[in-house]
Structures
1.
Amino acid sequence: MRVVVFGYMTWGHRTLDAVLAAGHDVPLVVTHPESDNPYETIFNDSVAELAAKHAIPVLVRNRADDEEVVERVRAAHADAMVVANWRTWLSPAVFSLPRLGTLNVHDALLPAYAGFAPLNWALINGEPEVGVTAHMMNGDFDAGDIVVQWATPVGAEDTVVDLFERTLAMFGPITVAGLERLATGRTDWQPQDRSRASYFHRRSDEDNRIDWSWPARDIANLVRAQVDPYPNAYCFHGSTRLRVLAAGVTDAPYGGTPGRIFVRDGAGGVVVVSGADARRGRNPGLVIHRVRTDDGQDLAATEYFTRMGGYLTSHPAP
């Protein structure tokens, strides 16, 4: 089939590579320009470079709603279009042009976790599984009928990088599988249950700030959702910003005031009181294992916290 590809970063790169490897003809690629957004410099394999390697014409756009894009897609006479990690709204004037429609590939189990950073948000929320969905594009973000959906379980020790690697490995195969289904002429795809839908915004520095009123499990999930190379979860020790690199949850309850640096843990970490109702003494504590200071030092928690007492806070002390 003739397949136009809209893609960006490593997700788009893997998708384009799989479409080409499956023997499809790609007459046009559309991608975004390079960005200095911290989340868009991670896993940033270039779609434009891959297209150039195969001598495929490339358009670079922040938004793909201008007349040149419409005309170039129309002139491509595509059977189908594939979209992977396109970051802005795509007009029906573009996605409705291919004969068989447009397949969007999204790293979430839609209808939940539409929008941005689905793996980070799903891990923060303690979801038992994540996955990838190939669905027909319509006028709403990530809301079209589902063509193929694959899932993978979230293990107790998985980080966002583990989930990224497993779901990224699905992007190429699920795209090819989706195109094979489109080629049959079928249109009886599974509608999304909009009562289960959720839509998430882009993550920013503020989203990585630790709130000690959260339960310990939620904070530990935030930490593993923001491991390197993602911007790390962080808090403050006095006026010093601390990035928390590794953390877990105690078996025993610890009571007191959220953020209190309480006691050394037998496993080599330091326990911090957490949870809005921590004063009742019924919540587990957060065990911090490793931290990073703003000057780039990575330290075991017991190296940094040489004595107990004091507080970790969400904002620097005045």
2.
Amino acid sequence: MSSIAVPWATLLTSVGLYIVVPVLIAQAIRKTLLSKGQAIFDATIHRIQPWSVSALLLTLVLLFAFQGNAILQQPLVIALLAVPILIQVFFNSALAYWLNRQVGEMHSVACPSALIGASNFFELAVAAAISLFGFQSGAALATVVGVLIEVPVMLLVVRVVNASKGWYERSA
């Protein structure tokens, strides 16, 4: 690991372009919409929601298209990458959800807390890996496997958290 050269300027540029700029733009749009009223904000979110899901799916398809052969040719490597991610996501989300219940947080706070606590922020890792090492690199493969595992597991966590609302809201 110590022999890997990380060009900090490229890394910082990637973080800025792929994380900071989109967050700033999103916050500016959110603030503008909220200044026009909650109803306008809610209607806009409802209108763009299918587009955001489509964009996520398109991103995943493109990532897998670039790494498809590597994924199919190296199932053991994929498993070695996937198992720790599965364990980490399930453990951290369950722990965060349970701890929120123990301290008396509302269910609406515990849900995103469980997801954030379990997230590996693979979107940042993918952007950095591709910027630093290219689409065909092992680093890109590892982050693509992360996305491949994390996205469906996080959707499962959402389903479990929503389905367990009754348990969560019963007094401990």
3.
Amino acid sequence: MHVDIVDLRQFYHSQLGRVAEQSISMALASLWARLPEERLVGLGYAIPYLDRFRADTERAFAFMPAGQGAVNWPPGELSATALVFDEELPLPDSSIDRVLMVHSLEFAENPRETLKEIWRVLAPGGRLVIVAPNRRGVWARMEHTPFGSGRPYSRRQLTALFRETNFTPGATAEALFFPPSQLKTILGLRSAFERLGRIFSPAFSGVIVVEAQKRLYQGLPVAVRASRRVFAPVLAPQGVPTTRDIVKHLSSHLPPSTK
């Protein structure tokens, strides 16, 4: 089950959320220094990080899963947000240069299908970065932050998932080495925790940040599949006749001279 959009916004507006965002942004910057004139999509709840990277991009979109909900972004501008199903992205093939997944993979109903869909929309040589809760870290065990919900991953699991879905694993980084506490003392020592954690215990970070590149020299099996999403109109009660039924009924009651 996805974390609700209201809870995500509240977390990133809190002091703990702002500090967590800074830590993850530093890890992202070590992988993506700049995105010159590229098309970037954030999938999940990535807008705190899109704000930092979109200045260099050609355009940036925020795709938010239907189970999570969506908010308008960027504020005060034309909306670049879309409510989507992560296995059926409303994009043409090979149309995006980079995809950033935050608060996304751990909630995916079928992670392999989600990554295959991302492979489809990425351009040749396109890159994907996933920020996922570390199953060894403390953050994945504490439910008062969004990183404590969904399915956490290990680095080995992410690497295996990339290879199964035709991605080549690349650079990695870690973030959130400090405890997920609201105490000002702990938050004040955040920089020291981050420094020491990267040196002595990188395996126990709160999140894993992994980059992968779209692989082209091995084809994915082609399969035609019907959408599993069924949309039922809310305002059309069952048994309402169609326009064709009405015309047929009226025609049967018209006098022969008027038919």
4.
Amino acid sequence: MQTILITGATDGLGRELALRLGTAGARILIHGRSAERAERVQAAILAAGGPEPEILLADLAGLREVDKLAGGINGELDVIVNNAGIGAGPRGGPREVSADGIELRFAVNYLAGYRLTRLLLSQLAPSGRIVNVASAGQEPIDFDDPMMERGWDGFSAYQRSKLAQIMFTIDLASDGVLANSLHPATFMATTMVTESGVSPISTVAEGADATMRLITAPDLPTGRYFNGLRESRANEQAYDADARARLRSLSDELIATALR
């Protein structure tokens, strides 16, 4: 029986993945912030005859919560799906920071998954894999102002955090891990999309189909970015080794400062 951790598994794409994989016989670690919503996903999997999922509650906007989440996971993991995230927010919305003072979209969409994955790598099965749910919306990171203290824009912040996920994916693959990232589908009918004021044009099922392929398909390459079901090309900064090194250094520095 496979054990699969899905962050953000109580709504949208994460919930759909948890239901599909759980009812197919995988043991799902359901991460979310709401116990009530997590219990509903757990109950749906059990009602369909799947193995009992484990619920793990944590707010990924705080790095200490990320560490607590990792510390509560015992045993071997077959798949880590870094799916939790927040959207761009409404146009003209204010700049927000995490509990650690880190630009919020960078903190939740990228840094939490970076930290969580690094903490859990030793528990990943030899044949295990990591799937990072990114986006086709990507923008280069400005390393002179990585926290966007100047010229704030929610959509740019979201796009930079998603490119950071892809850059991290390439680094994981360089370390010998089977890791891929993807844009599951464009403007899926999720809470994130509707809260940003955008009209959905894709279904959650479409996004789940593409993500399931990276979770379950044999003989996958590693370190690739997929747009739906097709391998694609990310923003050019993702392939810049110096930029990835700067991102790693920035990430480690932010984490060390927050946990000091």
